[in-house]
Amino acid sequence: MVDAFERRHDDRRADVPISVVPANEASWDDLRAVFGTRGEAARCQCQWFKARGRDWASLPVEARAERLRDETGCGDPEADRTSGLVAYLDGEPVGWCAVEPRTAYERLRHARIPWAGRDEDRDDDGVWAVTCFVTRVGFRRRGVSRALAGAAVAFARERGARAVEGYPLVLRPGQEVAWGELYVGSTGIFADAGFVEVSRPTPRRAVMRVDVTS
User: Which pLDDT value is given to residue 54?
Assistant: First the structure.
């Protein structure tokens, strides 16, 4: 287990701990429950940042799911690698976040957002990236993404990362956005995990980073 976090339900009746584990320590059935069978998460299977252009368009959902299963190593606690974290609320699988070395994300290498105005080595394996959050339907607004962002920092540090980045949405006070847009997280979620803004490549997207070597 990476860490445990406590967040309060919206109804304020009880504190329920959110536990977070590396994806290879979770079952594939649990991860499938988080992604569900409809909506953007179910269609994407967290492959958007892994492939570009024709490679992405040519992948059917079933193939994307198989890639995710291979990348996570779900159900194999002895696996020497995994591509993310799974969150549990009172024993129920409720969330996922992708966190790997930044070099694992082919689309990031060619996107504007991580690199605009920055002098960064795109081949630096020491910088990790949190690229995606999924919160299971029925469990939103319970602190799942915040727990995952905090756990991602510890997870990356334990595996030798020097720094961790995220590329979240910049939300104005009171602004409402569709859940599908929040797959990259919000600046508030990353700030709560200790990330600080290092650039603003577009009005709606920030690059946030935390150094983890100290």
Answer: 81
Gap between the Cα atoms of 185 and 198, Å rounded: 16
Residue-wise pLDDT tens digits, 160-210: 999 999 999 998 776 666 556 789 999 999 999 999 999 999 989 999 999
| 164 and 195 Cβ atoms separated by less than 8 Å | yes
CA distance 82 to 100: 8
Beta-bridged to residue 21, according to DSSP, are 86
Residue 133 — left, alpha, or beta (φ > 0 → left; ψ -120 to 50 → alpha)?
A: beta
Domains of the chain, earliest start first: 3-211 (3.40.630.30)
What pLDDT, on a 0 to 100 scale, did the predictor assign at position 53? 80
Q: What is the pLDDT of residue 214?
A: 59
